[in-house]
Amino acid sequence: MSIEHRYQCEVPPEDDGERLDRFLAIRIPEYSRSQLRTAISRGEVLIDGRTAKPAYKLKASQSVFCELSKPAVVLPEPEDIPLDIIYEDDHLVAINKPASMVVHPAKGHWKGTLVSGLIHHFSKLSAVGGSQRPGIIHRLDRDTTGVIVVAKHDEAHSLIAKQFELRTTLKEYHCLTLGIPDRDRDLIDAPIGPHPYHRERMAIRRDHPKKRAAQTFYEVAERFRHIALVNVQPKTGRTHQIRVHMAHLGCPILADRLYGGRPVISRTFLKNGRDDEQSAESIEVLNRQALHAASLTIKHPFSGKELTFNAPYPNDFRQALNILRS
Fold first, then answer.
1. Quick one: 151 and 178 in the same domain?
2. Which pLDDT tens digit goes with each residue over 115-154?
3. Residue 45 belongs to what domain range?
4. Is residue 196 one of the residues assigned to a domain?
5. pTM for this one?
6. Which residues pair with 185 in a beta bridge?
7. How many domains does the chain fold into?
8. 3-state DSSP call for residue 33?
C-alpha cells in the first residue's frame, strides 16, 4: 500500500463520544467523509493500536493513528445547471457565477458545482487543471458572485493562466462593509497565512513560515450611516484575500460568517443599524458575504485584444444597496 497521508493525535476531552469518521473528517479535510469511512474499513486507522469501525465512539485520551492510501478520485458528473454566460468564443467562456455555487468538486460539495454545469453545456474544456477541474483557471469562493473565466482548450488555459500569474489581469470587486473605512482609498499590504486555530479561516500572519505576500487596493464608492460600498482591486490572489484584508481594516464584509460581518442582515439593520424583530420590516435581505466580482479584464489569448467582462449585481446585493440608498 502506498501511503498518501499520515496523521496522529490524542482525542481531546471535548471530543469524548464523537464518531471516528466525523472526528477525522474535521481534521483531515483532504479526504471526504465517505473516503475516510473506506479507509477505516480497510484498517488504515488504528485506535490505541487496534482497528475500529467508522461509527466507533471515541474516548478522551485515546490515540488515533492513520496511514491513509490515496483516495479514489471522484470525477464530476454533468448536470443541467443554468449558466449565466457573459461571453463565449472558440477559446474561452466568461460566466456570472451565482451565490451558493462551488466552483469545482470538493469535500462536502460533489454535486451542483460550476464544473458539473460546464461539462454538461460544453463538449470541450481544458484539461490543464486535472480531471476534477476541467476548464477552471481561477476560482471564486462559494458565496462570492460574479465573473469567472473558463478555458475551452489547454493552450487558451495556459495563456490566460500566465496573465493571472504575471498579474496583468485587472480584477475589480464590489463589497458592502460593516463599518466605513477611515480613508477614501488606500493599499492594504499585509501577508496572509493559515489561521492559528480555525481551520476554515485565513489570517494576517507576518511571522508565519507559510505566509504569502498580499496586496489589496480599495476605494470607498459610497458611505451610508454604518455601511460602505467599497470597490476593491486585489493585486494578488490569496485565499479569502479581500475578506481577510477588509476584516483587518476593521470593516468586515457584510454577512461574512467567517470574518465577523454578522451572519444575517435584515432590512431594519440596513436602514437603522440595529435589528428589531417586532418590526414588519425585519426581513432577511443578505445571508452570505456581500462580495461580488464585478469585472475582469484580460487580453484575448490569441488576438491580444483587451476584453472586459462585467457582471451585474445579484438580486440580494442590489436589494441591499437600494435599501441603503433609500
1. no
2. 999 999 999 999 998 888 899 999 999 999 999 999 999 9
3. 3-69
4. yes
5. 0.78
6. 219
7. 3
8. helix
